[in-house]
């Protein structure tokens, strides 16, 4: 296979004016305009509003290339387009090479006849997706509605484009267009490999791996399929016919080293090479058995991911595209965010249906890090058409994506969409004419997506929608405890207090969340200091959930004394978010095995904004992410309310092995004096949840407004902490503690020792402007019990810079 990459600098012309600027391929329109100085930063202030015109224009990308004899003499030359966003017409030397209308499908166009010796010109006309959507809406026999957000491009559900490009309740409306991934000319004589995928069969300590190679032949011929999996190889001679051939060979691995989700074992990956007819594909495969156990039980129906026979409690979050400007979605950014997921103890991410099937790097990194992927198909919060053309386009998309991704060890589940069953109840049209819309839904969902999974990846389950009750059940199960996955939004969208989580016993909670503001340093990237106010135009513009800021303030008033000034407010909003998530997650973790998963909404942002993310745009951890690292702790102790007057102490062990746990339960007053103390030595079985102790609050403390409970436990030499207040924080006269911090260099590491004269709560260090994370933060600090935190910088910094960047605050100080 000869390849001529077409990546690099192209020319981009605005068709309506004729103006040209340079543009990158791979890359997007908005990034090109920004780099050329033609538009201001779309993330700054309210600039987004002035940039809506870009998505309404047509853009012409062009460049020249040299075609050598190697290309011209080949029997097949094709243009490989990994991803074109979205509506496009391609031509070479002025003659049509192809057209696209679905950005989730790879396109390969035969172009040999269009090439000439020497200089050639290629053009890609990127047509306005918004205009195409509006035109498509006019042709519909009946309306197909979608959810609306504050800044919204219309009819996004009618084009196969990243749905959140059109705006979301956390994301800007930037209708980018562009070419992503590989764009190249490739020449071959016999043909090309379209897909390689494997099927594993585990039996008696060995694993046979069948390798299927889909080969598109330009002409008939003979060749040999050569397969190699970590030194074990197989060969098969084949006669190939013009068109698509599927050739298979099998290899056997004895005593396979099994792949495990993070926290359950290692992530060995075997290198697979498949060669056929002069083309080859290399990938890494993890050997494991992945099942979704969805069986009737006493409660209803289970929802358990079982890997290699072990039931896994899934801990994680929902994932959205990491940047609204696709050109900025680099492997380094993904790697950093996925590291943040793993560092917080997550083992699963759900790729949400309003975003995108991620790039190969994403799944490669998840394979390596042991992060399972719940993969939605890209449909969200809307009704969708079921016209012949639309379904044909979705069929091609689904088959392509399933074949592309099915070999990833991390891939745990295919799910039809996000909230589309629920959406049947959101719109007047579908409430009044449910039959019609439900039939459309089923044609797309089960009839197209489910079928693609059945045919192209029978090794995995297809889950129709998130949330849903399971196959063939179109009831609204958002709040059903007995079965299905659940999106629980009464806390936040329903304005219920955190304690509302305690009423819910989900089998698997795949969405729930609470918003917070990003840090001041991130706000500085979109607002001038004159706008540093919660209700300023800019801060309100960077909040896309109507009423979101008010809800944050209102909730603060439920639990806390009011903070003074913006900085303290930001701190408190992040702490509050962490505590909301903690309330739900500690409760649901203790319910295992009834509940076997919590994925909170959402881990990341796609621009700097006030949202449900626990990691800010740019990668900085909010305080809530530090709390996540603690409440997702593998062996976790938590004090949870028992009715109005009691407290239960629970111990959850998600580890695959039993753990010896030494636990101290203390009640400490605000002067730092311990008034109650009990020590327990516990054997926590693998995959267990146990209520260790029940207390009557009145017997634990005579001063519930002047003391708190501290749990301290040691497992495998690691000490962990958790605290519980007896009354809302606002009822407590928190001591005016003086917290000291002393930065230190210890070898290559940067450390900070924290100490205090009186108990201090949610003590938080911030290293403004220095990228990196502390190993713990937002913690309880007691007199006589100093803590040393370790800071791991990302990139270069000096001890002096780090020292100067440091600041500290805690609850009493923020809400004086
Ligand atoms: C959900 C998601 C998103 C949304 C989030 C917050 O249920 O699926 O559509 O951004 O809630 O409202």
Description:
With 816 residues, the protein is of the alpha+beta class. It is built from 18 helices and 43 strands. The strands form eleven sheets. It has a six-stranded antiparallel β-sheet with strand order 3-2-5-10-7-8. The longest helix has 26 residues, at 565-590. The model has no long low-confidence stretch (mean pLDDT 97). It binds beta-D-mannopyranose.
Bound molecules: beta-D-mannopyranose
Determine the fraction of residues in helical runs and give it as a percent range.
10-25%
What's the number of extended β-strand segments?
Answer: 43
Q: Mean pLDDT, nearest integer?
A: 97
Short key terms for the protein model shown above:
6-stranded antiparallel beta sheet, binds beta-D-mannopyranose, 43 strands, alpha+beta, 6-stranded parallel beta sheet, 18 helices, 816 residues
Helices, strands, pairings?
Elements: E1 2-5, E2 8-14, E3 20-25, E4 27-28, H1 29-35, H2 47-50, E5 59-67, H3 69-72, E6 76-85, E7 87-92, E8 95-100, E9 107-110, E10 118-127, H4 129-139, E11 178-188, E12 191-203, E13 206-217, E14 221-229, E15 232-240, E16 243-254, E17 270-276, E18 279-285, E19 290-293, E20 304-307, E21 310-312, E22 314-319, H5 331-343, E23 348-351, H6 360-369, E24 372-376, H7 388-405, E25 411-415, H8 420-423, H9 428-432, H10 434-456, E26 462-463, E27 486-487, E28 509-511, H11 520-523, H12 537-541, H13 548-559, H14 565-590, E29 597-600, H15 623-631, E30 635-642, E31 646-653, E32 659-669, E33 674-684, E34 688-696, H16 697-700, E35 707-715, E36 718-725, E37 739-746, E38 749-756, E39 760-767, E40 772-774, E41 779-781, E42 787-793, H17 799-805, E43 806-809, H18 811-814
Parallel strand pairs: 22-23, 22-29, 23-24, 24-25, 25-26, 27-28
Antiparallel strand pairs: 1-11, 2-3, 2-5, 4-11, 5-10, 6-9, 6-11, 7-8, 7-10, 12-13, 13-16, 14-15, 14-17, 17-18, 19-20, 20-21, 30-31, 31-34, 32-33, 32-35, 35-36, 37-38, 38-42, 39-41, 39-43, 40-42
